[in-house]
Amino acid sequence: MKHDKICGPRPPASPVARKPIRAGRLPGPRSAQSAAGTSVWIVIPSFNEGPVIDRTLASLGPWLPNIAVVDDGSSDETPRLAEAAGVHVLRHPVNLGQGAALGTGIRYALLQGADFIVTFDADGQHRPEDILMLLATARQQQADVVLGSRFLGAPDNMPRSRRWLLRTAAAYTRFSTGLELTDAHNGLRLFTRKAAQQMRLRQNRMAHASEIVEWLASSDLRVVEAPVSIVYTDYSLGKGQSLFSSFNILWDLWSSKLYQ
Amino acid sequence: MIKLPLVALLLCCALYGWRQRALSPLVGFLTPLTCLIGSALVIKPEWSSAAAKMLGVGRGVDLILYIWTAISILILANIHFRLRAQHGMITLLAREIAILEARGPPNGDQA
Fold first, then answer.
1. What residues of chain A lie within 8 A of the CB of B27, using their CB?
2. Strand partners, B3
3. CB B110 to CB A259 under 8 A?
4. What are the tens digits of pLDDT across the range A179-235?
5. Beta-strand pair A145-149/A189-192
6. Average pLDDT of B56-64?
7. Domains by residue range for chain A, with CATH
8. Which among A66, A91, A93 has the least Cβ separation from residue B110?
C-alpha cells in the first residue's frame, strides 16, 4: 500500500490527501520507454563505484534505454567502466557530492528531452524492476513525483541500526515538513519533467534528500510513495550513511537557512 | 589612548558585518550590533562592570572577552557562508563543463 500526498505549505488535513491508495500492478518485463510511450531517463550519481558500476549498469541495460551516469570526480575506473557499458557519461572535474551529481544528471536529462527522470543509486542496492513500479505509479496516480519507500516494500535484510536511523530520519522529516513519508532518504525516486524543471538543489552533499522533501512540501506538486526493495550488501552498507553523517546533514540543512 | 584604535577597529568590523547582510542577514545584523556594544564598553569601561554585574558574568573584562568571542564567531560564520556560496558557483561551473563534455554511446543508442 502506498500513501497519497498532495504537497503544500502544511495544507489543512484533507481526507483526499491522506486517503491510502491501492498499489498499482507491476508492468511486465518490457522496455520502460515503450511501456510509457515517453522518454524515460535514469540518472545515476557515482563516486568511486568501480567494483559495482558495471554490474549495476548491466542490470539496467535490457530494461531502460536512456541512462546517464554522473561521475563525481572518481579516482578509480568508474567513468571508464560506465563508458564501456555504452551509457551517457558526465564527469565532474572535482568531487562535489551526490546532490550536485544528481543536479547535473537531472539537468542533462531535461536537455535531452526527458519526460520522466528516475534517480538510481550506483551501488546496486536498487532493483531495476522497481523503476517500472515507479513509472506505473506515476501514470496511474498522475503523480508529479514518486518516492520509493523501503518500508512499504517487501521485508529485506536491513540491519537493525540502519532501520532505526532511517525511521528516525523519516520521523524528523514528518515533523519538519508535515509530509507523511515513511522513507525520507531513498535514492530511488521518479520526477516528471514538470517537477524536475521546478527543482533547485542547493545541497551538494547528502542533505539533498532532505532538501528535496522540504521543497516538495512547499510545492503544489502531487507526491506519492511507492513500495520498493533495497538489496543490502556489505558494499552498499559500507557506503551508506552513518549516525555521524546524519549530524552533517542536519548542520548543512540548518546552516543553509542562514545565508542566501 | 588605546581606546581610539580599538573603537576604530570595532567600527571597521561593524562596517564589514553590515556589508555582508546580502549574503547572510544574521551576520549582517548581529556583527554590527555586537561591535557597537563593544565600542560603547571600550569608551565607557564602567558600563562593562555594571553590565557584567547585571548579567551575572563576573568582571567587566570577562564581558568584553565574551563579546569579542561572539564577534569572532560571527566573522567565522560569515567566512563559512562565503565559502559555501563560492562552492555553489563552482558547482554551477562544474555542471556546465560536465554537460558540455558529456559522452554518449558510440552509436547514439545504448546497449
1. 258-259
2. none
3. no
4. 888 987 899 999 999 999 999 888 888 888 889 999 999 999 999 999 998 888 878
5. antiparallel
6. 82
7. 30-258 (3.90.550.10)
8. A66
